[in-house]
User: Fold these one by one.
Assistant:
Number 1:
Amino acid sequence: MYRVRHERYNAGLIASAIYNVNRSKETKPVYPHDFVPGMSLPSDPEEEQREAAKRGVALAIARVPNSITSQEFETLKQNMIERLNKQGLDGAAILSEVLHE
């Protein structure tokens, strides 16, 4: 069992090194443990909340109909920012990341 995990970790080490050398600056680095099933490092709850918010915003924007006007979209964005700010997040930054502004 330990041997298999060790071998997977070593493979993850190589894979993460190759990925990280070739990734763009906008993408997050990956770590060897990301490639080993059942192995993870303790996560940051604030970062998890931020990532969940980004996924929610992306999903909400994907559901916006194409027929929406630019004024309606700006109002929608402002409402999202306000809701995220009420959750203690930086709504403008999250929206900017999702929309790649």
Number 2:
Amino acid sequence: MTIQPFNRLTVEAHRRDELAHGSIFKGLTKCLYGSLNQHERAFFIEVLPKPVHWFANSELEVWQAMLQQIGFRATATVIRDCRSANEENLARIDYADLITLAEELGLFEGQRGLDSFARAGLVQEGKETNGATSSGYPTCGL
């Protein structure tokens, strides 16, 4: 309530939108995954974790272009400071629902799913993460 009302309302509207289409995506994914052939499933498993990184990226090139456009004098310093703070930071987003969806689809029952999510840095097999033991299943790194 202490931030600008318009900004707060924009963020709230965006959050509601995400919640609404998130459940639609999950339902459609479950319906469609069952109809995929083996080749299509392999592709799906490889691609599914990728958007997490897209959303985690702070898009510094876009911010740099905007700051330069308005003539902000400290653009180089701000971008350099932000870049050193890790441009892509998975801690910025909550991808627990994606992990749950992958579990519900059975993606972690095969090595391909485990490997795909591990390469993306989204799961750790058989390790404790934030106090929750995975009992052999991958866990979200939040």
Number 3:
Amino acid sequence: MMAGEPTTWAYTAVSPAGVRRKATMVASSSREVSATLEAEGWIPLAVSPQRFAFTFDGVWEAAQGLGSRITTNQLTDWTLSVHQLLRAGLSVPATLESMSEDRSSPLAEISEALAEAVTQGEQLSEAMAAYPKVFDAVYRSYISAGETTGGLVPAAERLADMLTRKVRMRNKIQAVMTYPVLIGATIAVLVIGIVAFLVPRFTETFESLGAELPAATQALVTLSDIISPISSEGGINWFSPLLHAPWLVFLLWKLWVQVRDRPAVASRWDRLRFRLPIFGKLLHKLSLYRWASTFASALESGVSEPQSLELAANASGSRWQQQAAVQFQDALRSGRSLSTELTAFPFLYPPKILTLVKAGEEAGEMAAMVSQAARAYDDDIDRIVSTLSSKIEVALLLTVGAVVGSLIFILYLPIFELSSSALQGLRG
């Protein structure tokens, strides 16, 4: 492991109240992890590089947690309610206790635990650190900045606004991604249904005819024999991929989830997905929008520029940006400008970002300039979504017709050839 290279560290820490926490953190060294934890009020007990470990216990725990995850919509509603109660003049403990009274809310128990921790003298941001899957580092930093400056109400307002924009942006992406996924799933089901269940019926017909099958039809029959869950003798084909597909997909997904956290894998994956033919530009601009909007909001909340860069990189969803943020932070601490460092990543941070960041540095209005970049990328995403929606619909419908039509044609090809041979025989 190279010194200074961002790595995923697994750590165990405990709060002054005795709350134990096990999680991971991306950092350049174990000392950085310990320093970050201590700054957040946690006492590190163990810090070590995260090893690749795929266990069935981990898979089972993940499966159990699928239904209990707090959604962004739920967190947004909770944050809006907290902001309204705080603005009405309620204290933090009273606000949290009020939120815990709604037992239908998935955050009721967490609100109760937070209220108890704050009543005992713990800072709200520190108490939230016990729930990293609900309140991420970006969320906690907003709260921490509000506590430091005495502006918890504006901090909650900015959080609610940020989460609302996040939901709105996610809905935009879902609008353009849902249709391709549904059509893709439809194509897959149709192809699997035809190959696994319809082709065997035709195979019996082909055998009764006794004719030699065309190469395309023979290939389709062979494929059907491999993937069909029913063997040619009428029993179960235990070697069929369809019988094992659900478990294989689930296990491969969990394998990918663990591997993708490795910095080298994650950054290469970003480089690949940002260059995809159709959706690459959309994914890249979405990552830049998240980066710019979070960076601007964090600066407006009073968070320091180096920490704001870290929060922005984490919110971007791009490990490539997270690795770049480490370099940016070192540069700022050394007195170098952010605009100069951005030039080292010309593809990741295009001229639009570079120009506005440089203007922000010169005018001393970094938050305002980066906020303009976020709005510009928001508009770009709107245009891309509108364009893709119309083009994808036509392309996918044509794809469905071409795939299903080709399979049906290949199935009927021997019958067409036999009919043609019979007609020629009659004429002869």
